[in-house]
Design brief:
One of its GO terms (cellular component) is extracellular region. Belongs to the glycosyl hydrolase 28 family. It holds the Pfam family Glyco_hydro_28. GO terms for molecular function: polygalacturonase activity. The chain is an all-beta fold. It folds into two domains: 176 residues, 3 Solenoid (Pectate Lyase C-like), CATH 2.160.20; 144 residues, 3 Solenoid (Pectate Lyase C-like), CATH 2.160.20. It is 3% helix and 52% strand. The protein contains two helices and 30 strands. The strands form two sheets. It has a 28-stranded parallel sheet that branches. Strands 1-2 form a two-stranded antiparallel ribbon. Strand 3, helix 1 and strand 4 form a beta-alpha-beta unit. The longest helix has 5 residues. It is globular. The N and C termini lie far apart (66 Å).
Length: 355
Amino acid sequence: MCSTFFFGTLVISAAVTSGFDLNNFDQLNAAKKSPDKKIVIKNLLVPAGKTLDLTGLQSNTVIEFTGRVTFGYQEWEGTLIELKGKNITVLGKPGHLLDGEGQRWWDGKGGNGGKKKPKFIRVSLVDSTVTGLHIKNSPRHCFMIKSSENLRVQNTTIDIKDGAKHGGHNTDGFGVSSSRNVTISNSEVYNQDDCFATTSGSDTIFENAKCVGGHGISIGSMGSGNVVERVVIRNCRVLANTNGIRIKTRKEETGAVRNVTFENIEIKDISKYGIIIQGNYYNSGPRGDPTPFPIENLVIKNVRGHVARSGTNIFVWVAPGSAINWFWNTKITGGLKEQQCKGVPNDQTSRCGKK
């Protein structure tokens, strides 16, 4: 397509790149080598058991999703979409949909048995942006960020509402690991597991999010020597989740949580815990007394809202000496189930485990 500009009697034609239209999976390799470095993915069907492999991209590539992208059905444990590169721009155009049709795999077991289920999208991006993606019905874990640096993900919708009635499980929203300087902003997540979780890395921001139906916003589960540090979670709403915010470390494992801030978090209709910090986490439930695991310079500021009567407002159970330099300012009400907190710093003033 050309645009024509008139300056007196001089006519200048400027070429405008439309990009490589990828609507046939067999053209994927050609699209990645396109000299104009723009891939427009339109109404694409990815064959069963295959990955939309957007790795090995040329630097400064632009990827646009338009129309509906779907995936053939097969029981497998791969990833439906992979993105990897430097200086990459990913755009979801108005009206597009990345549709995992996860109901074909859901059986209430997630990654704990039953059908083998693929994860949805994994990104390893440097100096890049991802904007405006609309994702529906991931078979299990949805948006995994790994080995990324200087990445901004914004205006994302993860819609797995259907999983609540049709066996969705382990449908985690965002997961960040082994990354630095990642910001996730202005997202909506409807799912059946963590809205956001980070298990390793530094300088992470999760902000301006709406989380509905899942397990809350999490640090961890932590172990295997991993460290999470300099994380800010702010200006979020956590609605109808099992937990509001939580930190979970695994017994007899090593690692550290340092310089984490939860600020301006509204919770509402939480069924189990408004805030929970536990040092003996297992998927199947806590086992025995926690072992030491440092959680240092933790700020929980203006975390407020409501827990169901059958739940607990605040619960902490960590090994003595694990909690170092905590600052809390919370107002959480509603939960009538009292549990005795253990390992809380002596200067902690929150009504831990109280009504």
